[in-house]
Amino acid sequence: MLVLLAGIFLLHITTFILLLAATIENAWWVGNGFSTDIWARWVLNGQQWNYTDLPAHYPAGKHIIFYIYKFNLSLCLSLSGLCIMIAASIYTDIFHKNEIIGNYGPSFILAWIAFALSFISCVIYFVLRKKNT
């Protein structure tokens, strides 16, 4: 039982680190000579990256913070995983509909991996909870 609780704790910590890395990393949408994070676009001029505003066709609420970090326990765990999934889905659907150039970057992939780990952690926690009652 102690090993399972330690495993759940490690899943929480891993998910938190992945979400932190996904939020900090400037690679949500990448292309040849540019990289877009959730706050701005970075453009490569020669050998220097320049900070620019997000493109005008992005939604009006440009400065969206996507994730509620996982310092949650018990019932909030499933809500946290749901928030991760909803935020990544909104980013997928709204932000890059009309862009032909570029791909989803590693931050986007880290966010979806964090959702999967959060979901697994939630299922394990509820199974253990049910087993104890």
UniProtKB/TrEMBL annotation:
<dbReference type="InterPro" id="IPR050579">
    <property type="entry name" value="PMP-22/EMP/MP20-like"/>
</dbReference>
<feature type="transmembrane region" description="Helical">
    <location>
        <begin position="109"/>
        <end position="128"/>
    </location>
</feature>
<keyword id="KW-1133">Transmembrane helix</keyword>
<dbReference type="GO" id="GO:0005886">
    <property type="term" value="C:plasma membrane"/>
</dbReference>
<protein>
    <recommendedName>
        <fullName>Epithelial membrane protein 2</fullName>
    </recommendedName>
</protein>
<keyword id="KW-0472">Membrane</keyword>
<dbReference type="Pfam" id="PF00822">
    <property type="entry name" value="PMP22_Claudin"/>
</dbReference>
<dbReference type="InterPro" id="IPR004031">
    <property type="entry name" value="PMP22/EMP/MP20/Claudin"/>
</dbReference>
<keyword id="KW-0812">Transmembrane</keyword>
<feature type="transmembrane region" description="Helical">
    <location>
        <begin position="64"/>
        <end position="88"/>
    </location>
</feature>
